[in-house]
Design goal:
Blueprint lengths: L1 H13 L5 H21 L4 H22 L3 H6 L1 H18 L1 E3 L2 E6 L4 E2 L1 H17 L8 H19 L4 H18 L9 H23 L2 H11 L10 H12 L11 H4 L11 H33 L4 H25 L18 H18 L9
Antiparallel strand pairs: 1-2, 2-3
Helix pairs in contact: 2-3, 2-13, 3-15, 5-6, 6-7, 6-8, 6-14, 6-15, 7-8, 8-14, 11-13, 13-14, 14-15
Length: 379
């Protein structure tokens, strides 16, 4: 009877189009995240309940998206891109404001951030453009891809949301990277390197003097010397470093972190939750987290590179590298290695929009694994 039940479970599980190893790893990481969030938000248990609700919505989104064959995403990618741009324009015209930023659309019964869905739409659209012909791509698809990325980045940066705009821009350029393009303006390698370096330096000068706002410049200066304003702009980083350093090898113990439990550490259930892990669980807890992240990234890359067509390869690999980027940026931010840009730690930080976006991305990777590519699209 027991064997029969297991066979039945496997039979029905097959219809969900889920990759079992990747699914189990995501569930393990999400469970670990809920445990950490329980400690980080012990003063308000409602935060945990809300995250469980967000988690159920995100899992549902992943299950639904996993049923959509990749070739359908490719076919409808132009409409998805136009729809995303339309939403971003609506945000600039009619969006609701909070904290000095106009990033949300208020529908009355709910409020959502269109830039979140662009984290998925941009890689789909760019992968579709670049996979129309053989790889590496020709100049025209490259130009169209770069132009599309720039438009999206500028629309989101205008909200303003520089951190999200740069991350979404990176997700698009990852597709370009995996497509095999070579940036060679001049034939001589050293001259080419010098020219590109000069362009980057010029871009940095223009951004610092004409594009970056005062608070964004302040974040960069705080990164260089957080002790210059220990009770103001440098407070987050200094408290985060204290929390990380005080954890030692085995940590202070679950719910025993002084920085988080006594509210010295700001945003300890969202952007700075990694500091809670380091303080309460120590180096061992951090290594456990890194192991789960590493296994998920490895499995997702294996699925992507084993896919049958260029679109799936480009899309899966770029989504996986984007996932790694969110991890790298958040941990670099709370460790004082990168400016504070408000990027949550994937599957750990409290938040609904980011969790649903992440699960949707992995739903696409699940779909790549389980759906066969039509023969006429295999190239």
């Amino acid at each position: 009877m027991k064997l029969f039940s297991i066979a039945q479970l496997r039979h029905y599980w097959h219809y969900f189009k889920m990759d079992t190893p990747l699914f189990l790893l995501i569930m393990a990481l999400s469970g670990f995240g809920l445990v950490v969030l329980y400690s980080a938000s012990s003063e308000s248990i409602s935060t945990l309940y809300k995250q469980v609700f967000h988690f159920s919505l995100a899992i549902s989104a992943m299950l639904v998206i996993a049923q959509i064959p990749p070739y359908l995403l490719r076919r409808f990618s132009p409409y998805l891109m136009l729809f995303g741009i339309f939403l971003l324009i609506l945000v600039l015209l009619f969006g609701s404001s909070s904290g000095g930023a106009q990033r949300w659309l208020d529908l009355g019964f709910m409020r959502f951030q269109p830039s979140e869905i662009m984290k998925v739409i941009v890689p789909i659209a760019i992968a579709s453009i670049l996979s129309e012909k053989t790889l590496p791509p020709k100049p025209l698809p490259i130009f169209l891809s770069i132009a599309s990325i720039i438009v999206i980045v500028l629309l989101i940066a205008t909200q303003p949301d520089l951190g999200t705009s740069l991350l979404i821009g990176a997700s698009g350029f990852y597709v370009l990277f995996f497509s095999g393009i070579r940036i060679q303006i001049l034939k001589n390698h050293w001259l080419n390197f010098g020219l590109i370096s000069s362009l980057i330096a010029s871009g940095g000068y223009i951004a610092w003097n004409y594009l970056l706002m005062a608070y964004q410049k302040k974040r960069i200066m705080t990164l260089i010397d957080p002790s210059s304003d220990p009770l103001g702009s440098g407070y987050h980083i200094l408290q985060s470093k204290i929390a990380i350093g005080s954890g030692g090898i085995f940590g202070k113990g679950f719910e025993q972190g002084s920085q988080s439990q006594l509210d010295f550490l700001p945003e300890h259930s969202t952007d700075f939750i990694f500091s809670v892990i380091a303080e309460e669980l120590g180096l061992m807890g951090v290594l456990f987290l890194f192991t789960l992240y590493g296994l998920i990234i490895f499995r997702a890359f294996v699925i992507s590179f084993q896919s049958e067509d260029n679109f799936s390869k480009l899309l899966g690999a770029s989504l996986t590298l984007t996932f790694f980027t969110y991890i790298f940026v958040n941990i670099g931010m709370v460790s004082g290695l990168l400016p504070v840009v408000g990027v949550p730690l994937p599957f750990i930080s409290y938040g609904g929009s980011s969790l649903i976006t992440l699960m949707s991305s992995f739903g696409i990777i699940m779909s790549i694994r389980k759906h066969k590519t039509p023969r006429y699209l295999q190239r």
